[in-house]
Specification:
Enzyme class: hydrolase
Mean pLDDT: 96
Domain Glycosyl hydrolase family 67 catalytic: 133-457
Organism: Paenibacillus artemisiicola
Helix content: 25-40%
Low-confidence stretches: none
Catalytic activity: Hydrolysis of (1->2)-alpha-D-(4-O-methyl)glucuronosyl links in the main chain of hardwood xylans
Shape: globular
Bound molecules: 4-O-methyl-beta-D-glucopyranuronic acid
Number of helices: 19
Strand order of the largest sheet: 7-10-11-12-13-14-15-16
Structural class: alpha/beta
Largest sheet: 8 strands, parallel, barrel
Subunit structure: Homodimer.
């Protein structure tokens, strides 16, 4: 009864029979020989997928040597699996990895793994191959995830609202309770697992009154039921906690991390959590950040705060994920010395080596806040003795709020490929966050989810590609943004070549288009305060949030250089520091992030700053208009209702892009008094 949009990339739409998959008998039954809920869930998924894709049932049956089948099992526990996999290669399969092999003698496709989680990933891989029409007659695939932690952060509140959510209400909470649409939650777990995600924190990092009690016996029985659903798909559950819980929930008089009663309170609470959820992942914490409580209140630092929780979690193998989004959000705009971009590094770098080994610092991809363009956070790799993970934002807070199309995988790829140069060439962010660079025990990816209870999960149908792409990239950062886009399109809409190319081109151009009509040259913000949608050039200019552009009649930009600015550039290593510090060498797209320059400053492109602002904004709005025409080509090639929904959003985007264009161009024309060389209409 669900729509194609709801089924998303797990639609298992019928593929043309007779071509590749003529050996139907190969898929005629599914064999499992272990009593394991997770393997059972995987087998059910496989059976459902095959029935959809091939139009014939694939029932579960017992293994009989010589019968055609797909066999699933962990090594050493299944006759079929052990018959197919007898070689050394298996030693390379880690806890979540798998092998898929076609054995034509035994007439069997075998998916073997060292744990049941690997079977889940293996099954989704095989289903993906079938759905993409890839030949499965001679498979020999071995895969391990590159990143250990591949996490989703929900910013859901228990009243059912979602902070920065653009796709409806929470699927987890309503009316200050955990809600029970278990089918929907299970389908979310399937979507996440199929893309490679293995962890989820279900509540907002801003933990308010009721949510603070999620770690107590009042809510733990319900939280445990959610954990049960996610566990079936290899996903571990985490909770965000309120640093001040000992006070607000426990009735203590302090939350000082060095106070023994406080430590004891957390130990008891964590013990209760593990009694309810033995494989609980751990705690996610936003402390001393944007008015949230934290160790600073007690004159302690972030190592004291996180180690207190780490100590409580340690006996159970749990981790503390401690966010580095710590900055002064009550800054005076007159004060030119305080630089929000510096804050994470300044706060955390000096603490390197002080964190317990089950603390992971979660660092936003950039130093400010998920803007369409920012440099990479200089904190990555800069803490040799500390576990780090990266935080992306799938939800499009600053990138069009799922009303504009903005495929973010290309942005994430750029961040991951960035070479920090911390130990010379080859010190890329992806190697820092996969743990190999410093040999960390814990590391990985986190990202803020973009889903809600909208029928299509993400509001804008094309925003599903960001959720899918995030998981795929977390599993393997080597995948290209384009390959991921194409996969998503084929799985979601089928393989019509014109359709695939058209949607792929829309996705691949979308980030650049959004960037070109919004805040120019890396300066960021220029959005309406609070809700962050739509243009407002001075919206944050005289606020306390530390996000300024400093435009006057002569020029624009933030001087973050060593000699005359905030000195932020010195947080980068070697050639990166030199490049960013120099207005001549700084990449154009980040120029105004690092430098305050006259409007007549010449970019590396040869254009002046002002002319580049005019050009990108006229072109950007025009290209947004062009997306509508591309989408029109797809009429008749997909479900009418879905086609219309996206067409509506693209129309809104085009109108809204004009608004951006005109406000930005007019603002800078009035400030600078410099005319557009092309003589276009500016108001
Ligand atoms: O991007 C900003 C958002 C806040 C958010 C904060 C954070 C959860 O505007 O809504 O709060 O970042 O990451 O903590």
């Amino acid at each position: 009864h669900h729509s194609d949009a709801y089924r998303a990339w797990l639609g298992y739409r019928r593929i043309a029979p007779g071509e590749r998959y003529n050996q139907y008998e190969l898929y005629s039954s599914i064999v499992i020989s272990e009593q394991d809920d997770r393997i059972h869930a995987a087998a059910t998924e496989l059976s459902r997928g095959i029935e959809g894709l091939l139009g014939q049932p694939a029932p579960l049956s017992d293994y009989r040597n010589g019968d055609a089948c797909i066999a699933l099992g962990t090594f050493g526990h299944s006759a079929a699996i052990d018959e197919v996999f007898q070689d050394e290669a298996l030693a390379k399969i880690g806890p979540e990895g798998y092998v898929i092999r076609t054995n034509s003698t035994l007439r069997c496709i075998a998916i073997g793994a060292s744990s049941s989680a690997g079977i889940v990933y293996g099954v989704f891989h095989l289903l993906r191959l079938l759905a993409l029409g890839i030949d499965v007659e001679a498979l020999d695939i071995a895969e391990n995830p590159v990143n250990r932690l591949r996490m989703i952060n929900q910013w859901d509140n228990m009243d059912g609202s979602v902070e920065r959510g653009y796709a409806g209400r929470s699927i987890f909470f309503a009316d200050n309770r955990i809600t029970w649409d278990s089918e929907r939650i299970r389908d979310y777990a399937r979507l996440l697992a199929s893309s490679g995600v293995n962890a989820i924190s279900i509540n907002n990092v801003n933990v308010h009154r009721v949510e603070s009690k999620l770690v107590t016996t009042q809510f733990l029985p319900d939280v445990a039921k959610l954990a049960d659903i996610f566990r079936l798909y290899g996903i571990r559950l985490f909770l965000s906690v309120n640093y001040a819980s000992p006070l607000e929930v426990g009735g203590l008089s302090t939350a000082d991390p060095l106070d023994t009663t406080v430590r004891e309170w957390w130990r008891t609470q964590v013990a209760e959590v593990y009694a309810a959820i033995p494989d609980f992942g751990g705690l996610l914490v936003k402390a001393d950040s944007e008015n949230r409580p934290g160790p600073f209140t007690y004159g302690r630092d972030h190592a004291d705060g996180s180690n207190m929780l780490a100590e409580a979690l340690k006996p159970y193998g749990g981790v503390v994920i401690w966010r580095c989004f710590v900055y002064n959000c009550k800054q005076d705009w007159r004060d030119r010395k305080t630089d929000r971009a510096r804050a994470a590094y300044d706060h955390f770098k000096p603490l390197d080596g002080k964190f317990m080994d089950n603390v992971i610092l979660q660092v936003k991809n950039g130093p400010i806040d998920f803007q369409v363009r920012e440099p990479v956070s200089p904190l990555f790799g800069a803490m040799e003795a500390t576990n780090q993970m990266i935080e992306f934002q799938i939800t499009q807070e600053y990138t069009g709020q799922q009303r504009h199309v903005c495929y973010l995988v290309p942005q994430w790829k750029e961040v991951l490929e960035f070479d920090t140069l911390i130990k010379g060439d080859g010190s890329s962010v992806k190697r820092v966050v996969d743990g190999s660079f410093h040999g960390n025990a814990h590391s990985g990816f986190a990202a803020v989810s973009n889903i809600g209870d909208d029928e299509n999960w993400t509001g804008h149908l094309l925003a599903q590609a960001n959720l899918y792409g995030y998981g795929r990239l977390a599993w393997n950062p080597e995948l290209s943004a384009e390959a991921i886009a194409e996969e998503w399109i084929r799985l979601s809409f089928g393989g019509d070549e014109q359709l695939v190319h058209t949607i792929r081109d829309i996705l691949m151009s979308s980030w650049g288009i959004y960037e070109s009509y919004t805040a120019p040259l890396g300066i960021g913000f220029m959005v309406n305060p609070d809700h962050h949608y739509g243009p407002n050039v001075d919206g944050y200019e005289y606020s306390m949030w530390g996000t300024y552009h400093f435009a006057d009649c002569h020029g624009i930009g933030v001087d973050r250089t060593k000699a005359t600015g905030t000195g932020y550039t010195a947080q980068y290593a070697g050639a990166n520091m030199e490049q960013y510090d120099s207005p001549a060498n700084c990449p154009d797209e980040l120029l105004l992030f690092f430098h305050h320059v006259p409007y007549t400053h010449r970019l590396q492109s040869g254009k002046t700053v002002i002319q580049s602002i005019y050009d990108t904004h006229f072109e950007g709005a025009e290209r947004a208009e062009g997306l509508k025409a591309s989408w029109e080509l797809l009429e008749g090639k997909m479900d009418r209702e879905l086609h219309r929904q996206v067409a509506d959003r693209l129309a809104e985007q085009a109108t809204h892009a004009r608004e951006w264009r005109d406000q930005i161009n007019t603002y800078f024309y009035r400030k600078s008094g410099i005319v557009d060389q092309a003589g276009r209409l500016i108001y």
